[in-house]
Amino acid sequence: MKPYQIPSESMEPTLDVGQRVLVNRFIYHFEDPEPGDIVVFHPPAGADNGTECGVTPKPGEPCPKPTEGESSQNFIKRIVAGPGDTLSVKEGHPVVNGVEKKDEPYTNPCGNAAACNMPRTITIPPDHYFMMGDNRGASDDSRFWGPVPRSWIIGKAFATYWPPDRIGTL
Fold it and tell me: Number of structural domains, the chain?
């Protein structure tokens, strides 16, 4: 277990800036990460400076490939798609294997930003996961810098412990 502090508004309303979570760093030695899991991970190099994709995406396409290097920063996001899944984005919701995930009561609406609608489908590479923040209109995530290799995932967030009025499980 390891504690982490939420650095940005990208996971609101689920997690607020300054809120603290506990992360299980061993669980993925025994089971695979799954869509819906909130995870702490190292993003691709360049993600911590904004939006840097490993290739130039086609217009209306999420970033299909991350940069080669791993950032030393820690990010926290929700997994929305896994290895082999096809993905596009409609009104801020992931469309995974042709099915739009509209039932996401934990998200903030996306708005009208270009990243809210990315109708071109990509396929998530083997051993990679596509991450999105719950605050879809204010999250730099895999839409911009690509899927994350499994080996860069640190662990699964499972509980909040600060502030006291937000203590609970995720």
Answer: 1
- The answer for 77, left when phi > 0, alpha when psi is -120 to 50, beta otherwise, is beta
36: exposed, middle or buried (Cβ count in 10 Å: 0-12, 13-18, 19+)? exposed
Which residue intervals of 14-110 are DSSP H helices? none
Q: Which residues are catalytic?
A: 10, 77
* CA 11 from centre of chain: 9
User: CB-based burial of residue 116 (10 Å sphere; 0-12 exposed, 13-18 middle, 19+ buried)?
Assistant: middle
Domain that holds residue 57: 2-169
Rounded to whole angstroms, the Cα distance separating 94 from 100 reads: 6
Q: What is the CATH number of the domain that holds 77?
A: 2.10.109.10
Encode pLDDT of 12-61 as tens digits.
Answer: 999 999 999 999 999 999 999 999 999 999 999 989 876 789 999 999 99
Q: Is 16 helix (H, G, I), strand (E, B) or coil?
A: coil
Given a contact cutoff of 8 angstroms between Cβ atoms, the answer to whether 21 and 3 are in contact is: yes
**What is the C-alpha separation between 76 and 141, in angstroms, rounded?**
10
Q: How sure is the predictor about 4, in pLDDT bands with cuts at 50, 70 and 90?
A: very high
Give the 3-state secondary structure of residue 22: strand
